[in-house]
Amino acid sequence: MKKIYLIEDDKKIADLLKDYLEKYEYDIELVQEFDHILEEFSSFDPHLVLLDINLPSYDGFYWCRKIRSISNCPIIFISARDSGMDQVMAIENGGDDYITKPFNFDVVQAKIKGIMRRIYGEYATSTPADSIEIHGLFLHLTAMEVSLNETRALLTKNEFILLKAFMEHLNQVLSRTYLLEMLWDDEHFVDDNTLSVNITRVRKKLEDIGVSQSIQTVRGAGYKMVDTWSERQ
Predict the structure, then answer these.
(1) Is the entire prediction scored with pTM above 0.85?
(2) What are the pLDDT digits (tens) for 114-159?
(3) Handedness of CA 174, 176, 182, 183 (dihedral sign)
């Protein structure tokens, strides 16, 4: 049975959607504590997430980025916000699809079914990737290691989160604010100095496996990762 994590603060909509989708033999888990969404996600380990934008404390864009920092689980936004910019932001923050409220339940179910078949079912080309690879540089998602050729380096949680963000946005400038949000969680406050320390550590881990000067400081904007290793192999 496929599991769906439903993050919706309107209890009436959440209950109606839960009852409807359970008819199609989905296991639906409703969010319990909006300040602990990432912990609930990790505990439930769903096959798909339905995510509203307007939520208590932090919006859906924030939680989408947090989920993306640890998982490639498909995410469908469901929101009354119908502007083109909201839909663009949803996709840019890691969403896979966007459904505008009020929605037709059959359309929601059809989109879920389509994504499930593409990722897990008859249209799936392979099992979900266990690594990210760029020109021979591998980030191993389960082992939390980075490797080049036969050389590996073990990463801490924060180092892993940062390097994953850089590799997923190669040649793109990531602001310090964006990276701080990636590192922040409900238990540990991350300040600007903590980010600088972790950037230095990521650079050192990359140097240990033969990758130098790939994470560059963009003055006044943030950081970006560039390929400095492929031509040296």
Answers:
(1) no
(2) 988 887 765 554 444 578 888 889 998 877 889 998 888 988 888 9
(3) positive
Tell me the CATH class for 2-120: alpha beta
Question: Which is nearest to 155 in space by CA: 208, 192, 223?
Answer: 208
Query: What is the per-residue pLDDT across 49-95, written as a single tens digit (0 to 9) for each?
Result: 999 999 998 999 999 999 888 788 899 999 999 888 999 999 888 89
CATH 2.40.160.20 given to domain 126-225: no
What does the pLDDT read at residue 128? Answer: 46
Q: In the chain, what are the domain boundaries?
A: 2-120, 126-225
Q: Residues 153, 209: contact at Cβ < 8 Å? A: yes
Question: How many Å apart are CA 6 and CA 212, to the nearest integer?
Answer: 42
Q: Above 80 in pLDDT, residue 190?
A: no
What residue has token string 């923050």? 93
The closest alpha carbon to 7, from 69, 43, 56, belongs to 56
Given the structure tokens 């939680």, which residue do they identify?
Answer: 63
- Enumerate residues 6+ apart whose C-beta is below 8 A from 198: 158, 159, 162, 183
Distance CA 107, CA 119 (A): 18
- Outline where the chain has alpha helix (H): 11-22, 37-44, 60-68, 84-92, 105-119, 157-168, 176-183, 192-208
Distances 141 to 70, 87, 95, 189 between C-alpha atoms, Å: 8, 28, 19, 24
Distance (Å, whole) CA 186 – CA 98: 27
